[in-house]
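Lab notebook, bench 4. Still working through the backlog of constructs that have no structural model yet. Next entry is a single chain of 260 residues. Request: give me the structure tokens for it.
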Amino acid sequence: MIMGFAASQNAFAAALLHADRPVPDSITTARGGVDAARFAVYRNNVFVGLTKALAQRFPVTERLVGSEFFVAMARAFAQDHKPASPLIIEYGGDFPDFIVTFQPAKELAYLPDVARIEAAWTRAYHAADAVPLDLTVLGALAPEMLADVRLVPHPSAGLIQSEYPVGSIWSAHQQEMVTPVADWRAQAVLVVRPEMSVEVHIMPPQDAVFATSLFSAATLGEAAEAAFAAAPEFDFGAALTGLASLGAFSALQQDEGTVP
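Model written out:
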């Protein structure tokens, strides 16, 4: 039976990423025998390339676990995660979710969220450009309409909500000498590129629920209500101004449409 082109491709990819799979019949020597040695070299080169791509995208994650551990984790990920895009810069978007399931990393419970910051950093770097929302647009609205407005996140913006101080961990590892994180509390981290440079911001604790709600498409009224319930010291004006000044949003939505 002759295998179709798509099926042949899938079989080749499966054999390439799984050392226990047989070499495809189409990979032969000049004498017609199975060329296992040359295929093994190619397989190793592919794993090396994918591992390097992950190390470039997740340098803090690699630094936290060490190169040897990271290579083993990256190879385990690559085995079941083929690149979905010809752009290697996009590879590893679901690496943080994989880390959650990677048993040898279970003791480092904060590691997946650190990796989520790094994944968000890359997405922000390559995101579409957009002018951040000017708060004067909100100021022009009638007060009774403000509660029903939704804010549209900036194309580059990503919010990571963690039970661990992952923003502080990520920040500490931007330096040659790492300073231990003293305050081991939950953090919400905003990653955004409002202009040319990607910025990583640790949100004030009392603003975390507000920011998370807005990024989940809640109205300003709904987000403020949730924030006050979680933290009575929440300051609506300060939180909204702070997020907008960081470039977290690019437009607002009313019933009649989107306003830049």
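Notes after review: The two ends are 59 Å apart (CA to CA). The CA atoms of residues 6 and 155 lie 35 Å apart. Flag for follow-up if needed.
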